[in-house]
């Protein structure tokens, strides 16, 4: 097992500058890595929300959490495709979340917001397409989980 790794917000932002554009084309490299979205996305303001995730991975340098929503707030298959931020009415994301990848199952709450370039709109009650990604640099995806999550 690798030593405990807690990544600073600055390191996360720098290491994942290009991850969102390339994630869907790559395979997860840690066969034991997994994630489960726990509960609903909770809106905390017009431009911020939180998502609780139970995850397990044995190494990683950066985290990206993203939630995209259609104008209707309903599932829209276009949001699962590459470049879907263009069709999303709302897109909250973050590369700044702190996480620990040491092979142990952990549960944490991550904030997504409109601080980062490209983010837009506001989530409303309904459903959002979520991407949760842990990477090592720009080319290695350690953990990649996607799914539809209810927005409260």
Write up what this structure looks like.
The protein has 152 residues and is mainly beta. Helix content is 7%, strand content 43%. It has helices spanning 9-15, 19-22; strands at residues 34-45, 48-56, 62-69, 90-94, 106-113, 126-136, 140-151. The strands form 2 sheets. Strands 4-3-6-7 form a 4-stranded antiparallel beta sheet. It has a 3-stranded antiparallel beta sheet with strand order 1-2-5, with no helix packed on it. 36% of the residues are buried. The model is unreliable at 1-22 (pLDDT under 50).
Describe how the helices and strands are arranged:
Elements: H1 9-15, H2 19-22, E1 34-45, E2 48-56, E3 62-69, E4 90-94, E5 106-113, E6 126-136, E7 140-151
Antiparallel strand pairs: 1-2, 2-5, 3-4, 3-6, 6-7
Brief sketch in words of this structure:
With 152 residues, the chain is mainly beta. It is built from 2 helices and 7 strands.
Core attributes:
about 150 residues; mainly beta; four-stranded antiparallel beta sheet; three-stranded antiparallel beta sheet; 2 helices
């Amino acid at each position: 097992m690798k030593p405990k790794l807690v990544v600073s917000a600055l390191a996360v932002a720098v290491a994942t500058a290009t991850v969102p554009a390339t994630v869907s084309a790559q395979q997860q490299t840690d066969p034991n890595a997994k994630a489960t979205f726990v509960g609903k996305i909770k809106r905390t303001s017009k431009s911020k929300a939180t998502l609780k995730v139970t995850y397990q991975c044995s190494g990683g340098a950066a985290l990206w959490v993203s939630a995209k929503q259609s104008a209707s707030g309903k599932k829209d298959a276009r949001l699962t495709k590459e470049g879907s931020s263009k069709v999303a009415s709302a897109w909250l994301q973050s590369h700044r979340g702190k996480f620990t990848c040491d092979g142990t199952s952990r549960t944490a709450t991550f904030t997504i917001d409109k601080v980062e370039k490209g983010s837009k709109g506001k989530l409303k009650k309904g459903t959002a397409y979520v991407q949760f990604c842990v990477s090592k640099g720009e080319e290695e995806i350690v953990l990649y989980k996607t799914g539809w999550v209810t927005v409260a």
